[in-house]
Amino acid sequence: MSDGHGPTPETPSGWSAEQPPPYSAPPASPWTAPGAQQPVPTGQAYGPPAQQPPQPPQQAPYGQAPQTPYPPHPQQQPGYGYMPPPALRPGIIPLRPLALGDILDGTIKLIRSNPKAVLGLSAVAALLASVPLAVGQAFLLDAMPSFDDPEGIAAAESQLNSISGIAGQYAGTLVSSAISFVVVTLLTGVLTRILGRAVFGGNISAGEAWQLVKGRIPALFGVVGMMAAIMIVPMIVFVLLLVAIVMNASGTGAIGWIVGLTVLFLVVYVAYYLFFRTRFAFASPAVVLEGRGPVDAMRRSWHLVTGDFWRVFGILLLTSLLVGLVASLLTFPFTLLGTMLGMLGTSSVTNTVISAVLIAVGGTLGAMLTYPFEAGVSGLLYADRRMRSEAFDLVLQTAAIEQQRQGWVHASADELWHPSNSIRS
Q: Of 71, 124, 193, 372, which is the most buried if we count CB atoms within 10 A?
């Protein structure tokens, strides 16, 4: 019978498992020199190895990199908060405040995702605006004689310098500008409805978009009329001022006043036009997506632009320059060919028709890409301003999660743009 001090099968050294042997090696000191060999305690021959203290990295020789690498940057490790997860993007844009690249990329995706509706409507609008201009230019070229007819050139110059010649020269341009102004506003409304669905990855046909927008046509025409009044009133005042100067002055003094006032007016009017164009850039989206009336929509656009005027102005101006350059490149070959045909060819109805067709084709191709791009940028800027000023991105994200859960985009997404859904409206 053992008294607890002899060896047993459980404890070969004769000591219990709970009590360490009295003559075992002392525990290792935590201050042992780095790299020194540590003896293994005899009392732990059949147990787990003794825990060694962490070894600091050894000093590397001068000019060499340390053997122990530094830990990776916190941005490369999960859980540090330096890399937020990407925003939801069910459609053409990420559902967060947009940068310039997001707006331009989203506009291109809008055209590519629904080319039949977007480009088809744009082609119809561009054709309506290009035909009067093409006809006016073609008849103007038809009235011009060939270069080898000096007498005809002199007669044509006197005709073009007359009042009827000037009216005929610019009538097509004025009619085309008026039609373009109306058509672009209506097209912006229809494309805005397509864009509102494309944000969630949904497609809508041109017929469906028209059915949704046709009830808003009177309000869109109201916006067109108010914008036209804002732009035309300064011109009327300027013309009346010139008439008064001509009636009350004479000679070189009147000519000097007219030239000086014309230059000053052009400079001021360009600034005036750009200011109000920026301020009311979101009137059409507000009419279509929010169901507002003309006055309320223009007030809504003014409010959305406030606080970020220069950014909106810069993006709209840059867009106009870009699309103008692209449209010029597409239009130039057709316009040049039509002009040369009208000036060098013989004066005939066939020649006039061919020249008008070429000019109209060039104008249609240029405007077919210009109109949807400007409308898309305006619509996405409208969405961006609502995200920044009303936290509308949270509304869109919540709706996108629900859409993904259901697996399809339904028409209720159109109602999300109503201002009652904004968090801070």
A: 372
Q: At 104, is the secondary structure helix, strand, or coil?
A: helix
Say if residues 135 and 225 touch (Cβ distance below 8 Å): no
Q: For the chain, how big is the Rg over CA atoms in Å?
A: 38
Helix (H), strand (E) at residue 106: helix 100-113
The size of the chain, in residues, is 425
Q: By C-alpha distance, which of 134, 176, 129, 147 is closest to 335?
A: 134
Q: Which residue has the tokens 């291109």?
A: 108
pLDDT of residue 247: 80
Query: What is the rounded distance in angstroms from the CA atom of residue 47 to the CA atom of residue 197?
Result: 69
215 Cα distance to chain centroid: 27
Read off the pLDDT of residues 330-354 as tens digits, 9 standing for 90 and up.
888 888 887 777 666 555 667 777 7
Distance CA 354, CA 341 (A): 8
What gap in Å lies between CA 239 and CA 247, rounded to an integer?
Answer: 12
Q: Are 189 and 220 in contact (CB under 8 A)?
A: yes
- Min mean pLDDT across 75-89, 151-165, 327-341 is at 151-165
pLDDT at 22 over 80: no
Pull the structure tokens for residue 169: 């020269």
Q: Residue 35: pLDDT band by 50, 70, 90 thresholds? A: very low
Give per-residue burial for 239-261: e unless 16+ CB within 10 Å, then b: eeebeeeeeeeeeeeeeebeeee
Reference 424, options 380, 396, 386; nearest CA is 386
pTM of the model: 0.70
Q: Are 43 and 61 in contact (CB under 8 A)?
A: no
- Which of 252 and 52 is assigned the larger pLDDT? 252
